[in-house]
Design goal:
By secondary structure, the protein is of the alpha+beta class. It has a domain of 118 residues: Ribosomal Protein S8, Chain: A, domain 1, CATH 3.30.1370.110. Helices cover 28% and strands 23% of the residues. It is built from four helices and seven strands, in the order αβββαβαβαββ. The chain has a seven-stranded mixed sheet, sandwiched between helices. A hairpin with a 2-residue loop joins strand 2 and strand 3. Helix 3 crosses helix 4. The longest helix is centred in the middle third of the chain and has 17 residues. The radius of gyration is 21 Å and the shape is elongated. The chain starts with a helix and ends in a 10-residue tail after the last strand.
């Protein structure tokens, strides 16, 4: 029996003899076939727009000028969570209200990062209704002016069933003329 196993191992080594390891193999590879970018999602307020990037069930959005490092930190859960809002069991109107109220409160308190738990839509006949609606809510007043970026959560925080929302810092009024 060992002979067959040794023979297969030898064949495998021969087949792999001229392969070269990938550089940066730990980075996420995003096949272009799975990647879809909508250029912009505009709010009703006329001035706030988000770039949107989707990869399968994952989503990421950001306001113009947000650099990749901030987006990476958000994606990797490197911002401390200041609040969580769980939308399970809420209808669309109540969920929307809850998101807007939570973002307003956290922003007023000087917080930066909120975890919105919306689920993946497995309990809904219509699929991920709240998840799909969330991007629109983030782009509409009053939240649009507060939101800097958002991204699907990491596995430890609910994965694609939750979204991190990064809020803009409160602008301080300068006393300089």
């Amino acid at each position: 029996m060992t002979g067959g196993s040794d023979e297969r191992a030898s064949e495998f080594r021969k087949a792999m003899a001229e392969t070269v390891p990938l550089e940066d193999r730990d980075k996420l590879l995003r096949p272009k076939a799975l990647r879809r970018r909508r250029p912009q999602l505009e709010s009703d307020s006329g001035g706030v727009r988000f770039e949107i990037d989707r990869l399968g069930e994952r989503i990421e959005g950001w306001a113009p000028g947000v650099d990749r490092a901030v987006r990476r930190k958000l994606r990797n859960a490197e911002f401390p969570l200041d609040a969580r809002v769980d939308l399970h069991g809420l209808d669309t109107a109540a969920a929307r209200r809850s998101v807007h109220e939570t973002l307003e409160r956290v922003h007023a308190e000087g917080g930066r990062c909120v975890l919105v738990i919306h689920g993946r839509g497995h309990g809904s006949a219509d699929g991920p209704v709240l998840k799909e609606a969330l991007t629109g809510w983030l782009a509409e007043p009053p939240s649009a002016a507060r939101v800097l970026a958002f991204a699907s959560a990491s596995g430890g925080h609910g994965g694609v069933g939750a979204t991190y929302v990064l809020l803009r810092r409160e602008r301080s009024v300068s006393s300089h003329p």
